[in-house]
Amino acid sequence: MRAHLLISGRVQGVWYRASARNEAFRLKIKGWVRNLPDGKVEAAFEGPTKAVEEVVAWCYKGPPAARVDNVELTWEKPQGETEFSMR
Known about the structure:
This protein has helices at 16-27, 49-59; strands at 2-10, 30-35, 41-46, 67-76, 84-86. It is α+β, with helices and mostly antiparallel strands. The chain has a domain at 13-68: Alpha-Beta Plaits (2-Layer Sandwich). Helix 1 runs antiparallel to helix 2. The mean pLDDT is 95.
């Protein structure tokens, strides 16, 4: 299972990327996360369905300092991610 997310709100400068990466590591899934110039965070998570669903649920709330206004979620065909990276 692979999920592509575009997260908006107060998500940059509040450790959102690092926290998302840590959550992915905890769940042992692959993918990437990056800040976009418009203040949004983009991410892709790939792995077992249950683990991907857990990290997607986490993205809706984020770390304590974040304020997530919207999450655009697209389910995609797996692409064979080999590790997790911050872009």
